[in-house]
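EI: anyone free to look at a 401-residue chain?
SC: sure, send it
EI:
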Amino acid sequence: MLFNYKALDAQGQEQSGSVEALNNDVAISSIQRRGLVITQINSVEEKKGLSMKIKWLERVSNKDVVILSRQIATLFAAQVSALRVFRLLGGETENKVLGEKISEVADDIQAGASISKALSKHPKVFSTFYVNMVKAGEESGKLDQTFMYLADYLDRNYAVSSKAKNALIYPAFVVFTFISVMVLMLTLVIPKISAIITESGQQIPIYTRIVIGFSNFLVNYGILFLIAIVILGFFIYRSSLGEKGALMMDSAKLSVPYVGTLYKKLYLSRIADNMNTLLVSGIPMIKALELTSDVVDSKVYQEVLKKAMDLVKGGRPLSEALSGNSEIPSIVVQMAKIGEETGELGSILDTLAKFYQREVVNAVDTLVDLIEPVMIVLLGLGVAFLLASVLIPIYNISASI
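SC: here you go
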């Protein structure tokens, strides 16, 4: 049985860890033989059921990692030891899941592992990009600056990505609400009215016949139609998990008018920001391209970066490796070339990242401004068509009486 404990050593410093023992008494004896005074001990098995229930409700958000990185940078700048930093933050972090991960990192550091090695054991919280940045900071001796770079980068990335995603939430909600109301009307209201219209014996207009036909279809085959949509959605999702399917989905997403341009600018800002952050931290160009391809979140741009990485390995400069790809604008290639010639590639990439971040924000604001009136007009036309197709025949019936 595994027990987690907290204890005080001879100097009064708090220690924590885990011990394997047959029962609680054996665990306590084992810890006391190490010269520790136990303050808390718990069985992992006893907590396991409750822990699993809580953990699925909690998650580590980007915001949590940003705050953690800033705290780590501040403590390192104050010359606090790495072990002490993670022990302090493990107990003070509000997010319990993140607190447990940080405590496990502290245990690994106490056992002799490097910070980057300890962080790499928790890939769901600390990405490969994050771990490699920390590794570069360890090698250069600038861990405080590295964690501040990471906090700034994650903050910028989160702000731009959330801006783009939030812009699509409102129209998606409106469309979902509209479809739900229309389905309810077609399945509950229209069938009763269509019976009156049909029994009148009058000639039914074509647009009314279309609405009645669609209503009858939903009433008779609505459940089968819904099941078919769910199955189709499941197969699309499954295919998107594979390499070819994901590439097709990302290509289709980039092909959508206006929205595709928005995503292109988002990916370009992410690539430029990642590359700048990695190069400034002292990571070699090839490794920077590899890490950026892993976190760009687009199979299309991932393929572009992997091809560029192979060309750079062969001795080509970055600007030449990126040229010839329709996904990379010529301005990016030209700016990269200027950066290589002047030795200011990092600065140029930073400028490009800020430029595309502004472009994303402006594009999102424009999309939001345009989408509201367009949605109002389209929804109004939809409701008007449905009402007209029902009310006009009813008016004709009342007029003939």
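EI: The chain has three domains: 2-55, 62-154, 166-401.
SC: 👍
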